[in-house]
Amino acid sequence: MPITVAALRETVAGERRVAITPEMAKKLGGKGLRVLLERGAGASAGFPDELYANTDFAAAGEVLAQADLLACVLPPADAVFAQLREGVVVVGQLRPYGAPARIAALAARRLTAFALELLPRTTRAQAMDVLSSQAAVAGYRAMLIAAEACPKFFPMLTTAAGTIRPSKVLVIGAGVAGLQAIATARRLGAQTEGYDVRPETREQVESLGAKFLDLGVSAAGSGGYARELSAEERAAQQQALAEHLKAFDVVVSTAAVPGRPAPKILSAAMVAGMKPGALIVDLAAESGGNCELTRPGERVEQGGVSILGPLNLPAGAPLHASEMYARNVVNFAELLLKDGALQPDFDDELVAKSCLVRAGEVLFRG
Protein backbone atom coordinates (compact mmCIF):
# COMPACT_ATOMS: atom_id res chain seq x y z
CA MET A 1 0.00 0.00 0.00
CA PRO A 2 1.34 3.48 -0.81
CA ILE A 3 2.11 5.93 1.98
CA THR A 4 -0.89 8.20 2.68
CA VAL A 5 -0.02 11.86 3.13
CA ALA A 6 -2.98 13.66 4.71
CA ALA A 7 -4.14 17.09 5.81
CA LEU A 8 -7.19 18.47 7.58
CA ARG A 9 -8.98 21.78 7.31
CA GLU A 10 -7.28 24.16 9.75
CA THR A 11 -9.46 24.95 12.77
CA VAL A 12 -7.62 27.77 14.55
CA ALA A 13 -9.78 30.91 14.44
CA GLY A 14 -8.91 33.06 11.43
CA GLU A 15 -6.58 30.50 9.88
CA ARG A 16 -7.18 30.17 6.12
CA ARG A 17 -4.04 28.39 4.91
CA VAL A 18 -3.79 24.73 3.94
CA ALA A 19 -0.81 22.41 4.34
CA ILE A 20 -1.15 20.70 0.94
CA THR A 21 -1.98 22.62 -2.23
CA PRO A 22 -3.10 21.14 -5.57
CA GLU A 23 0.39 21.59 -7.01
CA MET A 24 2.03 19.76 -4.12
CA ALA A 25 -0.65 17.05 -4.14
CA LYS A 26 0.25 16.40 -7.76
CA LYS A 27 3.93 16.26 -6.89
CA LEU A 28 3.33 13.78 -4.09
CA GLY A 29 1.16 11.65 -6.36
CA GLY A 30 3.94 11.64 -8.92
CA LYS A 31 6.20 10.02 -6.31
CA GLY A 32 3.75 7.17 -5.83
CA LEU A 33 2.18 8.55 -2.64
CA ARG A 34 -1.52 8.75 -1.89
CA VAL A 35 -2.88 12.17 -0.92
CA LEU A 36 -5.95 12.26 1.35
CA LEU A 37 -7.58 15.51 2.45
CA GLU A 38 -10.55 16.46 4.56
CA ARG A 39 -13.31 17.77 2.31
CA GLY A 40 -12.98 21.52 1.85
CA ALA A 41 -9.49 21.61 3.38
CA GLY A 42 -8.18 24.11 0.85
CA ALA A 43 -11.35 26.07 0.14
CA SER A 44 -10.58 29.06 2.38
CA ALA A 45 -7.13 29.38 0.80
CA GLY A 46 -8.62 29.53 -2.70
CA PHE A 47 -8.22 25.83 -3.55
CA PRO A 48 -11.62 24.11 -3.88
CA ASP A 49 -11.64 20.32 -3.93
CA GLU A 50 -12.09 20.14 -7.71
CA LEU A 51 -8.62 21.65 -8.23
CA TYR A 52 -6.99 18.65 -6.58
CA ALA A 53 -6.37 16.02 -9.26
CA ASN A 54 -5.85 12.40 -8.17
CA THR A 55 -6.56 13.28 -4.55
CA ASP A 56 -8.91 11.43 -2.21
CA PHE A 57 -11.29 13.26 0.13
CA ALA A 58 -13.04 12.11 3.29
CA ALA A 59 -14.43 13.33 6.58
CA ALA A 60 -11.90 14.36 9.22
CA GLY A 61 -12.20 11.15 11.23
CA GLU A 62 -11.57 8.97 8.19
CA VAL A 63 -8.58 11.08 7.19
CA LEU A 64 -7.01 10.65 10.61
CA ALA A 65 -7.70 6.91 10.64
CA GLN A 66 -5.91 6.40 7.31
CA ALA A 67 -3.03 8.90 7.56
CA ASP A 68 0.58 7.76 7.60
CA LEU A 69 1.89 11.34 7.52
CA LEU A 70 -0.29 14.21 8.71
CA ALA A 71 0.73 17.71 7.54
CA CYS A 72 -0.62 20.77 9.32
CA VAL A 73 -0.14 24.53 9.22
CA LEU A 74 -0.82 25.12 12.92
CA PRO A 75 -1.17 22.47 15.62
CA PRO A 76 -4.60 20.82 15.68
CA ALA A 77 -6.41 20.32 18.98
CA ASP A 78 -4.58 17.81 21.20
CA ALA A 79 -7.55 15.45 20.94
CA VAL A 80 -6.84 15.06 17.22
CA PHE A 81 -3.58 13.23 17.94
CA ALA A 82 -5.47 10.52 19.84
CA GLN A 83 -7.32 9.64 16.61
CA LEU A 84 -4.11 8.84 14.75
CA ARG A 85 -2.67 5.35 14.63
CA GLU A 86 0.51 4.68 16.58
CA GLY A 87 3.61 5.41 14.54
CA VAL A 88 2.05 8.10 12.34
CA VAL A 89 4.34 11.03 11.45
CA VAL A 90 3.14 14.61 12.06
CA VAL A 91 4.82 17.52 10.24
CA GLY A 92 4.07 21.22 10.60
CA GLN A 93 4.41 24.30 12.76
CA LEU A 94 3.77 22.57 16.07
CA ARG A 95 4.62 25.51 18.36
CA PRO A 96 6.46 23.40 20.93
CA TYR A 97 7.59 26.21 23.23
CA GLY A 98 5.45 26.35 26.32
CA ALA A 99 3.20 23.53 25.10
CA PRO A 100 3.88 20.52 27.37
CA ALA A 101 0.32 19.20 26.97
CA ARG A 102 0.68 19.11 23.19
CA ILE A 103 3.98 17.28 23.37
CA ALA A 104 2.53 14.85 25.93
CA ALA A 105 -0.43 14.15 23.62
CA LEU A 106 1.95 13.32 20.77
CA ALA A 107 4.03 11.08 22.98
CA ALA A 108 1.04 9.30 24.52
CA ARG A 109 0.01 8.07 21.08
CA ARG A 110 3.60 7.04 20.24
CA LEU A 111 3.70 9.38 17.26
CA THR A 112 6.75 10.86 15.57
CA ALA A 113 6.44 14.63 15.22
CA PHE A 114 8.57 17.22 13.45
CA ALA A 115 8.23 20.94 14.26
CA LEU A 116 9.46 22.83 11.22
CA GLU A 117 10.15 25.94 13.33
CA LEU A 118 13.09 24.03 14.84
CA LEU A 119 14.93 23.49 11.55
CA PRO A 120 18.49 24.83 11.64
CA ARG A 121 18.88 28.08 9.68
CA THR A 122 21.29 26.60 7.15
CA THR A 123 21.59 26.89 3.39
CA ARG A 124 20.37 23.32 2.92
CA ALA A 125 17.27 23.99 5.03
CA GLN A 126 16.15 27.04 3.04
CA ALA A 127 13.81 25.04 0.80
CA MET A 128 11.86 23.89 3.86
CA ASP A 129 12.19 26.97 6.06
CA VAL A 130 8.61 27.81 7.00
CA LEU A 131 9.68 30.64 9.28
CA SER A 132 11.23 32.48 6.35
CA SER A 133 8.49 31.80 3.82
CA GLN A 134 5.71 32.89 6.16
CA ALA A 135 7.70 35.86 7.50
CA ALA A 136 7.93 37.17 3.94
CA VAL A 137 4.14 37.17 3.76
CA ALA A 138 3.86 38.80 7.18
CA GLY A 139 6.29 41.59 6.31
CA TYR A 140 4.46 42.38 3.10
CA ARG A 141 1.05 42.46 4.76
CA ALA A 142 2.30 44.49 7.73
CA MET A 143 3.34 47.31 5.43
CA LEU A 144 0.02 47.20 3.56
CA ILE A 145 -1.77 47.49 6.91
CA ALA A 146 0.47 50.44 7.78
CA ALA A 147 -0.25 52.16 4.47
CA GLU A 148 -3.99 51.78 4.98
CA ALA A 149 -3.96 52.92 8.62
CA CYS A 150 -1.54 55.82 8.14
CA PRO A 151 -3.32 59.21 7.98
CA LYS A 152 -0.89 60.29 5.24
CA PHE A 153 -0.14 59.13 1.71
CA PHE A 154 2.94 56.94 1.38
CA PRO A 155 4.24 58.34 -1.95
CA MET A 156 5.02 61.90 -2.93
CA LEU A 157 2.16 63.37 -4.95
CA THR A 158 2.16 66.46 -7.12
CA THR A 159 -1.35 67.82 -7.40
CA ALA A 160 -3.14 71.01 -8.38
CA ALA A 161 -3.49 71.65 -4.66
CA GLY A 162 0.26 71.44 -4.16
CA THR A 163 2.94 68.85 -3.58
CA ILE A 164 2.45 66.24 -0.86
CA ARG A 165 5.67 64.96 0.67
CA PRO A 166 6.15 61.20 1.06
CA SER A 167 5.69 59.50 4.41
CA LYS A 168 8.80 58.62 6.37
CA VAL A 169 8.83 54.93 7.30
CA LEU A 170 11.17 53.07 9.64
CA VAL A 171 11.37 49.27 9.72
CA ILE A 172 12.95 47.83 12.87
CA GLY A 173 14.53 44.44 12.28
CA ALA A 174 16.05 43.41 8.96
CA GLY A 175 15.24 39.72 8.94
CA VAL A 176 13.03 38.18 6.27
CA ALA A 177 9.90 39.98 7.47
CA GLY A 178 11.68 43.29 7.87
CA LEU A 179 13.31 43.17 4.45
CA GLN A 180 9.99 42.36 2.80
CA ALA A 181 8.38 45.24 4.71
CA ILE A 182 11.15 47.57 3.51
CA ALA A 183 10.73 46.41 -0.09
CA THR A 184 6.96 46.93 0.12
CA ALA A 185 7.30 50.41 1.61
CA ARG A 186 9.66 51.32 -1.21
CA ARG A 187 7.20 50.01 -3.81
CA LEU A 188 4.51 52.16 -2.22
CA GLY A 189 6.72 55.23 -2.57
CA ALA A 190 7.56 55.93 1.06
CA GLN A 191 10.87 57.41 2.19
CA THR A 192 12.18 54.29 3.92
CA GLU A 193 14.84 53.47 6.48
CA GLY A 194 15.74 50.16 8.08
CA TYR A 195 17.35 49.46 11.45
CA ASP A 196 18.91 46.33 12.91
CA VAL A 197 21.46 45.73 15.65
CA ARG A 198 23.24 43.30 13.31
CA PRO A 199 25.61 45.44 11.21
CA GLU A 200 25.81 42.83 8.46
CA THR A 201 22.24 43.71 7.46
CA ARG A 202 23.23 47.17 6.24
CA GLU A 203 24.04 45.88 2.76
CA GLN A 204 20.69 44.08 2.51
CA VAL A 205 18.73 47.17 3.58
CA GLU A 206 20.59 49.42 1.17
CA SER A 207 20.20 46.92 -1.68
CA LEU A 208 16.45 47.55 -1.46
CA GLY A 209 16.92 51.28 -1.93
CA ALA A 210 16.39 52.14 1.73
CA LYS A 211 18.70 54.00 4.09
CA PHE A 212 20.29 52.07 6.96
CA LEU A 213 19.75 53.72 10.33
CA ASP A 214 23.00 53.32 12.27
CA LEU A 215 22.59 53.85 16.02
CA GLY A 216 26.13 52.79 16.87
CA VAL A 217 25.09 49.57 18.65
CA SER A 218 26.17 46.20 17.26
CA ALA A 219 24.80 42.88 18.53
CA ALA A 220 25.64 40.28 15.90
CA GLY A 221 24.68 36.82 17.15
CA SER A 222 24.50 33.23 15.90
CA GLY A 223 21.96 31.37 13.81
CA GLY A 224 20.91 34.55 12.02
CA TYR A 225 19.59 36.14 15.23
CA ALA A 226 20.91 39.04 17.28
CA ARG A 227 22.41 38.39 20.70
CA GLU A 228 20.84 39.99 23.75
CA LEU A 229 21.99 43.53 24.38
CA SER A 230 23.76 44.46 27.61
CA ALA A 231 22.13 47.04 29.85
CA GLU A 232 24.57 49.69 28.63
CA GLU A 233 24.00 48.82 24.98
CA ARG A 234 20.25 48.86 25.43
CA ALA A 235 20.35 52.28 27.08
CA ALA A 236 22.50 53.67 24.26
CA GLN A 237 20.22 52.13 21.64
CA GLN A 238 17.05 53.50 23.20
CA GLN A 239 18.44 56.99 23.64
CA ALA A 240 19.57 57.20 20.02
CA LEU A 241 16.41 55.58 18.66
CA ALA A 242 14.14 57.91 20.67
CA GLU A 243 15.64 60.92 18.92
CA HIS A 244 15.23 59.43 15.45
CA LEU A 245 11.65 58.27 16.05
CA LYS A 246 10.45 61.87 16.26
CA ALA A 247 10.90 62.21 12.49
CA PHE A 248 8.96 59.12 11.35
CA ASP A 249 5.32 58.84 10.36
CA VAL A 250 5.25 55.03 10.42
CA VAL A 251 7.28 52.44 12.35
CA VAL A 252 6.98 48.73 11.57
CA SER A 253 8.76 46.54 14.12
CA THR A 254 9.64 42.94 13.29
CA ALA A 255 12.20 41.82 15.90
CA ALA A 256 11.40 38.34 17.24
CA VAL A 257 13.18 35.13 18.23
CA PRO A 258 11.24 31.81 18.22
CA GLY A 259 10.51 30.50 21.68
CA ARG A 260 11.39 33.73 23.47
CA PRO A 261 9.46 36.90 24.31
CA ALA A 262 9.94 39.63 21.73
CA PRO A 263 12.57 42.20 22.75
CA LYS A 264 11.10 45.44 24.05
CA ILE A 265 12.54 48.11 21.76
CA LEU A 266 9.93 50.88 21.87
CA SER A 267 9.19 52.20 25.36
CA ALA A 268 6.13 54.19 26.34
CA ALA A 269 8.37 57.24 26.72
CA MET A 270 9.65 56.82 23.16
CA VAL A 271 6.09 56.59 21.86
CA ALA A 272 5.22 59.75 23.75
CA GLY A 273 7.97 61.54 21.87
CA MET A 274 6.61 60.62 18.43
CA LYS A 275 4.64 63.10 16.33
CA PRO A 276 0.81 63.16 16.58
CA GLY A 277 -0.70 60.94 13.89
CA ALA A 278 2.29 58.60 13.86
CA LEU A 279 1.63 54.87 13.54
CA ILE A 280 3.35 51.75 14.89
CA VAL A 281 2.62 48.31 13.44
CA ASP A 282 4.09 45.71 15.80
CA LEU A 283 4.67 42.48 13.90
CA ALA A 284 5.96 40.82 17.09
CA ALA A 285 2.61 41.20 18.87
CA GLU A 286 2.08 37.42 19.10
CA SER A 287 5.20 37.04 21.26
CA GLY A 288 4.57 40.06 23.46
CA GLY A 289 5.43 42.88 21.07
CA ASN A 290 8.44 45.13 20.48
CA CYS A 291 6.49 48.07 21.92
CA GLU A 292 5.57 48.29 25.60
CA LEU A 293 2.10 49.54 24.66
CA THR A 294 1.22 46.79 22.17
CA ARG A 295 -1.86 44.70 22.86
CA PRO A 296 -2.03 41.58 20.66
CA GLY A 297 -4.86 41.80 18.15
CA GLU A 298 -5.85 45.32 19.19
CA ARG A 299 -5.36 48.96 18.21
CA VAL A 300 -4.12 51.22 21.00
CA GLU A 301 -4.24 55.03 20.89
CA GLN A 302 -1.69 56.79 23.07
CA GLY A 303 -1.04 60.51 22.93
CA GLY A 304 -2.04 60.77 19.29
CA VAL A 305 0.05 57.74 18.26
CA SER A 306 -1.65 54.52 17.08
CA ILE A 307 -0.14 51.13 17.92
CA LEU A 308 -1.44 48.10 16.01
CA GLY A 309 -0.74 44.52 17.10
CA PRO A 310 -1.91 42.33 14.18
CA LEU A 311 -1.92 38.54 14.57
CA ASN A 312 -1.28 35.68 12.13
CA LEU A 313 -0.66 37.93 9.12
CA PRO A 314 0.21 35.07 6.71
CA ALA A 315 -3.38 33.81 7.00
CA GLY A 316 -4.50 37.06 5.36
CA ALA A 317 -2.81 36.10 2.08
CA PRO A 318 -3.72 32.40 2.21
CA LEU A 319 -3.25 31.40 -1.41
CA HIS A 320 0.39 32.40 -1.83
CA ALA A 321 1.20 31.69 1.81
CA SER A 322 -0.17 28.16 1.37
CA GLU A 323 1.77 27.65 -1.85
CA MET A 324 5.04 28.51 -0.13
CA TYR A 325 4.21 26.61 3.04
CA ALA A 326 3.13 23.44 1.21
CA ARG A 327 6.32 23.51 -0.83
CA ASN A 328 8.32 23.72 2.42
CA VAL A 329 6.38 20.76 3.85
CA VAL A 330 6.85 18.58 0.80
CA ASN A 331 10.56 19.37 0.59
CA PHE A 332 10.92 18.30 4.21
CA ALA A 333 8.75 15.20 3.75
CA GLU A 334 11.15 14.02 1.04
CA LEU A 335 13.81 13.68 3.76
CA LEU A 336 11.57 11.21 5.60
CA LEU A 337 10.90 8.91 2.64
CA LYS A 338 13.09 6.11 1.36
CA ASP A 339 12.08 3.41 -1.12
CA GLY A 340 8.41 4.38 -0.79
CA ALA A 341 8.37 4.04 3.00
CA LEU A 342 8.62 6.44 5.91
CA GLN A 343 12.18 5.95 7.12
CA PRO A 344 13.51 9.19 8.66
CA ASP A 345 17.29 9.33 8.78
CA PHE A 346 18.06 10.64 12.25
CA ASP A 347 21.71 11.03 11.33
CA ASP A 348 20.54 13.91 9.13
CA GLU A 349 20.86 17.16 11.10
CA LEU A 350 17.66 18.59 9.62
CA VAL A 351 15.65 15.54 10.65
CA ALA A 352 17.21 15.18 14.10
CA LYS A 353 17.02 18.82 15.17
CA SER A 354 13.41 19.32 14.09
CA CYS A 355 12.11 16.18 15.82
CA LEU A 356 9.90 16.82 18.85
CA VAL A 357 8.83 13.26 19.55
CA ARG A 358 10.19 9.99 18.10
CA ALA A 359 7.86 7.00 18.39
CA GLY A 360 6.59 8.40 21.67
CA GLU A 361 9.97 9.44 23.05
CA VAL A 362 10.16 13.17 23.76
CA LEU A 363 13.33 14.63 22.24
CA PHE A 364 12.53 18.34 22.51
CA ARG A 365 14.24 20.10 25.38
CA GLY A 366 12.92 23.62 25.00
UniProtKB/TrEMBL annotation:
Domain of life per record: Bacteria
UniProt entry keywords in alphabetical sequence: NAD, NADP, Nucleotide-binding, Translocase
Alanine dehydrogenase/pyridine nucleotide transhydrogenase NAD(H)-binding domain span: 147-309
A Pfam cross-reference name: AlaDh_PNT_C
SUPFAM superfamilies for the chain: Formate/glycerate dehydrogenase catalytic domain-like, NAD(P)-binding Rossmann-fold domains
Catalytic activity of the protein: NAD(+) + NADPH + H(+)(in) = NADH + NADP(+) + H(+)(out)
Catalytic activity, EC: 7.1.1.1
Domain Alanine dehydrogenase/pyridine nucleotide transhydrogenase N-terminal, first and last residues per copy: 6-138
Physiological role: The transhydrogenation between NADH and NADP is coupled to respiration and ATP hydrolysis and functions as a proton pump across the membrane.
PANTHER family (alphabetical): NAD(P) TRANSHYDROGENASE (PTHR10160), PROTON-TRANSLOCATING NAD(P)(+) TRANSHYDROGENASE (PTHR10160:SF19)
Stated name of the protein: proton-translocating NAD(P)(+) transhydrogenase
Source organism per UniProt: Rhodanobacter geophilus
Lineage of source species: Bacteria, Pseudomonadati, Pseudomonadota, Gammaproteobacteria, Lysobacterales
